[in-house]
Structures are given as C-alpha cells and as structure tokens.
Amino acid sequence: MTVTLKNAKRVIGIKQVTKAVKNDLAKCVYVADDADDRVLSPLKELCMTKNVEMIFGNTMAELGKSCNIEVGAAAVALL
User: Fold this and answer.
1) For the chain, which ranges sit under pLDDT 70?
2) Which positions, given as ranges, span the membrane (predicted)?
3) How far apart are CA 8 and CA 5, in angstroms?
4) Is 31 helix (H, G, I), strand (E, B) or coil?
C-alpha cells in the first residue's frame, strides 16, 4: 500500500475525498480505522451509493505516513 499511495494520483482528507467521490473521480478510498465514525459515516454512505471500493485496516498515522505527510489522514482516495 505504501508504494501505491506515495506514487499515485490521490487526494487526502475527508472533504477532498468526498468531493472526488461525488465527481466520480475516485477509484478506491482508504479509510482509517481510528477516525471518528461521525465524520466518516457520510463518506462511507456516499461510497456505497457510488459503488466505490473502500479499504480499511490502517490507522490515521499510517495513512498520513503512506502519503508522505506529517499528520494523520482519515481518508485517502486514489484517482
């Protein structure tokens, strides 16, 4: 996963990922297991509605590190 996120065209963060999914640009979405479910629920529902694959199993810190940013990321979308 690390290589995939570092080199791929992607967007990071709930707002940007939501926008990408709404505009049918996201191929798949990585979702952090430790992110607040209240924040993630609308994105999860949108992904289900748009049939966008969601991949779980990472922490916010791991997603952030995989994207070469110094902070955690609740969600990352591959475009």
Assistant:
1) 1-4
2) none
3) 5
4) strand
